[in-house]
What we know:
CATH architecture: Up-down Bundle
Amino acid sequence: MSRSVPDAARPDRADALASAVRKIKWRVLPLFVAMFIVNYIDRVNIGFVRQHLSADLGIGAAAYGLGAGLFFVSYAVFEVPSNMLMQRFGAKIWLTRIMVTWGMAAVGMAFVRGETSFYVMRLLLGAAEAGFFPGVIFYFTQWLPRDERGKAIAIFLSGSALASVVSGPISGGLMLINGAGLHGWQWMFVIEGMASVVLAGFIWFWLDSKPRDARWLNREEQDAVLGEIADEQRQREAAHGVRPSAWKLLRDPQILIFCVIYFSVSLTIYGATFWLPSIIRKMGHFNDFQVGLFNSIPWLISIAAMYFFAMLAARFRFQQAWVACVLLIAALGMYAAGQGSPVFSFVAICFAAIGFKAASALFWPIPQGYLDARISAAVLALINSIGNLGGFVAPAAFGLLEQKTGSIEGGLTGLAVMSVVAAGAVFFARMTPHEGRPALAQQ
Length: 443
């Protein structure tokens, strides 16, 4: 008889959990997608103004590549401290702060006067944005059960693909504005940066830091969410021990593997992102708006790919196999992009986008399932910050290659090689912390 009460209660908890998950997704996912859209636009919109920076400020290919990449240096330095502070102050306060400061830094990009100020503002923008992405990923670990987090992450990451789709036409259109002593590219930075500041005000009134703060969840739904998260934590404690050590996990070879995989993914994403508008300009005589429209095509394709592979991974439950598969698709596409005309390169990058954007969505459930919840915020931030250094290496290397050789073919081949390396590393990554069991079998 002692087992009858929990068994009888289990369907009620399952119903309450399902109801809570639906509410959480409808409440926070649209907001996080909107945040990611404006975040991604502010991060990569310099790709559309490269020729204007050169013509108006004398910023050449190497300087542009270095400045584009410096964002990720300060981002990496401040990523872990920012995510730890979010745990202390709560998501509501900290995510609002992040959006206000990055919006102001994005506006400041309109007033750079040369290479030095360009470098400084990119560093400031990276420091301001640090903690946003891993903060949202950590937020999901506190609000959604394991089986729902992968789908939520895929929807959230679609924000970057949506941003890539809309940023071209929006940025291109804004660059047609002239007046008040500002060039079009300056108006683009001002308007897109202020959009982040305005959205920050909405975050303050809409977002809750913890399930217990959510008045739009009833008590049964709150209990169901917290109970499910607690059950998952007990499973991690059984593997890691009652007192997990953050330093021990940081020395864990699995964490290094996670960093290598995400570094390779970021390397490919930002290599394509920052140089795609330049490839498009070589295809013909296009104005800024037309370049923006062409720039949207690979990312539009990638949105469908992200959802498609997320559904396959959820159905067949071999996460690492799917990550390896899409990384090989990215490798093939990036290699082909360096072998033909600008039009052929553009088509190849469209194909590669299927792989590298799907990989970015499929990757995160792997470290999430491995890490102890009490230290996952800091370690997820570490993985993201080290991985995002690919965003420094790719544009800086591409800029030097183009300035010295007049071509980025070698860079595209290098991205293909790194994707193959990451695909191999995926099979050494564990989905759970248990020892002595094959990673794929644990699915």
